[in-house]
Design brief:
Mean pLDDT of chain A: 85
Low-confidence stretches of chain B: none
Number of helices of chain B: 10
Distance between the termini of chain B: 32 Å
Structural class of chain A: mainly alpha
Strand content of chain B: 25-35%
Number of strands of chain A: 2
Structural class of chain B: alpha/beta
Strand order of the largest sheet of chain B: 6-7-8-3-9-10
Mean pLDDT of chain B: 92
Oligomer: heterodimer
Strand order of the largest sheet of chain A: 1-2
Helix content of chain B: 25-40%
Order of helices and strands of chain B: EEEHEEHEHHHHEHEHEEHH
Radius of gyration of chain B: 18 Å
Largest sheet of chain A: 2 strands, antiparallel
Low-confidence stretches of chain A: 1-12, 303-311
Shape of chain A: globular
Largest sheet of chain B: 6 strands, mixed
Number of strands of chain B: 10
Chain lengths: ~300, ~250
Amino acid sequence: MTTAQTPAPAAADAPSRRPSEIAIEALIWLAGASTIVIVALIFYFLLREGINTFLDIPLRQLFGRRWYPIEDQFGLLPLLAGTVIVTLGAVIIAVPLGVIAAIYLGEIAPPWLREILKPLIEILAGIPSIVLGFLGWVALAPVVQRLGAPTGLTGFTGSLLLAYMALPTIISIAEDALYAVPKEYRDGSLAIGATQWQTIWRVVLPAARSGLVIAVMLGIGRVIGETMAVLMVTGNAANVPSLGLATFFSPVRTMTATIAAEMGEVAQGSLHYNVLFGIGLILFVITFLVNWLATRLVGVNSMRRKRGGGL
Amino acid sequence: MQNKIEVNEFNFYYGSFQALIELNIPIRARQITALIGPSGCGKSTFLRCLNRMNDTIAGTRAEGQVLLDGENIYAPAVDVVSLRQRIGMVFQRPNPFPQSIFDNVAYGPRVLGMARQKSLDQIVQKSLEDASLWDEVRHRLKDPAQELNPGQQQRLCIARTIAVQPEVILMDEPCSALDPVATLRVEDLMQELAENYTIVIVTHNMQQAARASDWTGFFWLGRLVEFGATKTIFSTPKQELTEAYITGRRG
């Protein structure tokens, strides 16, 4: 049979190609492996420097309301509350706004307007957070104070600022998710006699669900991890605000801001130093949880898609 | 014989390109009209003009009349959304929504506010029965529609279309993504549906047009070359071009 001979030329070809193939494969492997190693190393150092937090300080005190490092009072509750308040506020503002903006960009805006808006949003994503923090401090804080807050530097100010920092991420990823929805779905819906809004709400958004979840999660990740801007505009007071509307309009301090503000003046190896790393460890775990939640939410959907094949 | 749709002096443009030229076509009520012709001849474009799906494409323009029961669907006062409810469409590739089988069929009645839950169940069952899919899916209505095979998916799309009780069903090469067995099932289904619906089908497949339609229109470069009873078109066409295309000498 003649077909049996076809592998021969390929084999003759192989020796010249093989070294470069191996090199490229090794490089790709290295790139993949390095991310795992780096994450593992980060975790290791956080754990090594921060584990004392949880060993030396009684849990009762650790989850207390008093954060006075000078008096060896390391109650993390105010910082946790600060992060939760600022993040929650930012998410409440940014998610609906971001998804709606993505819908407008992807489904409704005429092409010429989209061409103007998309680069602008990307520029917004590229502005350094310290610049936005400055803007918040100078321009946003006075407005918040005029709204009736005791000071302009509040959790809400931070939320608003962070919402705008997370928006570009949410918008561009959500818009990609909407773009990935096949046109056939829209046609199918319109051809039945559904309106454009019904089509978006009942067909396009559900079909883009997994991508939208990723957009929201990455937005949250951006918000939780942000440091400098929140440090500048949240008032930097390690208090647990009272519940109610005042919760959002009191000065707070987030975990990230605490690390950034205090790391410079802490004695290396002291308990305070360990606690700051402990805070980092908690942030690390929170980020992991957010990611885990995202993959769980998305996973169900993509599994279904794989089984389905089809379009 | 009654005309469900009458197309008079119809022109259609993509930007400056004229895709359809001076079309005059009668579509008979409760009969199957097949549109044939080579790729790019405008037959799919024409089909999408009948329910104004081309409105979703920027830069398109239509001139002339398309009369549905004597009323021009391109008149300014026409509500496109309710027009599409009267003229349903089945697409080239099966496009069930990524939802359950039930939700796919229930989609139209739901968005059009046609039914409460109890009658919704009945509508879904009736539509699936009419699309001869009920027996295959009755025990798995909650399963994702994407798990059906392509032939079943296409019949599901037909069920989804007839769930809103349109008067006309447009089919844009509905069998081009299907195997021969699934194709025959869809063709059989078309014959049953023609008792209640007016059907217009675009097809590349000469045999399909010959065996499944009552009327045939032959398109060439945006013009309607010949229109007539399918038997006549396929046995004694008046135009040489038609004969050349049907017999495979041009195309």
